[in-house]
Amino acid sequence: MEASWVIRAKRADFYGLADRFGLDPVVIRCIANRGAASEAEIRRYLEADWRDEYDPHRMLGAEQAASEILEAVRSGEKIMIASDYDVDGVMSGRIFLESIRDAGGDVFQRAPNRIREGYGLSRSMVEDAAAQGVSVIVTCDNGIAAFEAAKRAEELGIRLIITDHHECQFEVTPEGKPVTGADGGKIYRFPKSSVVVDPHQPGETYPFKGLCGAGVAYKVCRLLYELQGRPREESLHLLEYAGIATVVDVMDLVDENRILAKEALVRVPRTENPGLRALLSLYRLDGREKLAAWHFGFEIGPCLNSAGRLADAGMAMDLLDASEEEAPALARKLKELNDSRKSMTAEGVESAERWIASRPALDDVLVIPVPDLHESIAGLTAGKLREKYHHPVIVLTRSGHGDWKGSGRSVESWDMFAHLMECRSLMTKFGGHPMAAGLSLPEENSDAFRARLNETSGLTEDDFKPIIKRDAAMPIDYIRPALIEQLKLLEPCGKGNPDPLFAEKDFHILSARLLGKQANVLKLSVQNSAGCRMDAVWFGPREDFEDTVRGEYGEDSLRALYGGRDPGVHLMLAYVPVMDDYWDPPQIQMQIQAIGRAI
Length: 599
What we know:
Layout: E1 4-7, H1 14-21, H2 25-33, H3 39-47, H4 62-74, E2 78-83, H5 87-102, E3 106-110, H6 123-131, E4 134-140, H7 147-155, E5 159-163, E6 169-170, E7 188-189, E8 195-197, H8 213-227, H9 238-248, H10 255-267, H11 274-282, H12 293-310, H13 314-320, H14 327-357, E9 366-369, H15 378-389, E10 393-398, E11 403-409, H16 416-421, E12 429-432, E13 436-442, H17 446-455, E14 467-470, H18 481-487, E15 502-515, E16 521-527, E17 533-538, H19 542-553, H20 555-562, E18 569-580, E19 587-597
Parallel strand pairs: 1-14, 2-3, 2-4, 4-5, 5-8, 9-10, 17-19
Antiparallel strand pairs: 6-7, 10-11, 11-13, 12-13, 15-16, 15-18, 16-17, 18-19
Helix pairs in contact: 1-2, 4-8, 5-8, 5-9, 6-7, 8-9, 9-10, 9-12, 11-14, 12-14, 13-14, 14-15, 19-20
């Protein structure tokens, strides 16, 4: 489906602000497009660091949680940190583990086994904790939906402190509609606990609600240090874990999340954690002054995630707790797991696409059974399919207990969590965000589940169109190395704070060739209407380029381009300008982000 190409149109005094900040007006335009248009907002965007974080006292329940943890430490009680098995869970648990250890507490971290125990705090985990003499359980990156486990904890006399960042559940009618109170608002449900810390709970006063689980844990632990009378600087090492999780959990890199990510990108290269140092060495990232967000998102993060996906999250926890001698071998094992995960994901996508091809038409919401897929790969598979089809996708796998386990990824216009709430009667368990969710349901309910989601989706054809949001229609002859250097001020880039994107409506494509062992990188020589030539690379599916050329100009033109001949092909390209360091001196290059018909 053809994408919609739009230009971000935020208004500001671009030239006046450019003079005051000593920056190119294009850079100011990009910053304004990301929500910072006044001088104060731009200064915060460019300069904010850990000193500019919000006061954790403002987060509902955070001070009480820190106080109860410190009381348990001073009373000599045994504390279990119950985390999730992904990077956010591992990192949020690590934040609590180090903070409680620093306070002198008797503490250990535990995550469920994805296959045997499923997501979140379970009844069996609570019973195991009781058998080990635990009297306090602190959840992180989970717990807000742990109703059965919370009830069992109360029965066993274990105090439960919930810290989470997932959406809170609310009462629904048998038809799946929200039950409202006298004030017209939803009636929320919470597990029985001593205290709940979750930025999404009603009554929250914290100014930023987009934190990941590790971000919430970091806020509570900042207060834990403060209650001990310790200086703020003693808790700054926790920023490494919170920042990694923020990027890997694909949180919006805006406001306070951007601060956490920025801090981690400069702190992790100098980390004192042997496990993180071993990963940096493995990916040849040691010795750098600063990392990029994609190093977290595509190298360090997936490596850590592979433990919870294919083995046990305890492997990732062990790495973060390892000595200098132990860490390298553990890091290598995780990398091997991650390599296996990549091939399994590719197989899962192929199986899902065969199912899609067997259907008469695409559903609004794709609920795809891939029975033999390893359940830990379902979310990754759903993400790949969402990128390709731009529909909400839920991939179902068999759990081995006669049930389906599912993982979903959504599009921006469709709140997956809210629509799952309307199907709650068909599921045995679920949780998540507007953009992603996990669930379990009896196999016999799968058809009804698919039908109800599609009957009530409310999606239209416009929701399925990818939207290419350009910052400006900037001609490539405007690009200078100094501009590319200034554009780095927008980093870290990712969800919510995208790479600066530019476009021209008419590029003359002079030639094309494929690079790499698997011929998976496309390199073009292009020329704009002003006669400026430049190299451009495309890392996306080469079919996007080939199908566009075929559709507009025919197969012979495509062959001519690959043969180094100029058949007169013109395309519209959206691009990010970069410096290609392969050459001496480095040369300006376009990294293509989207391809369309020339206008």
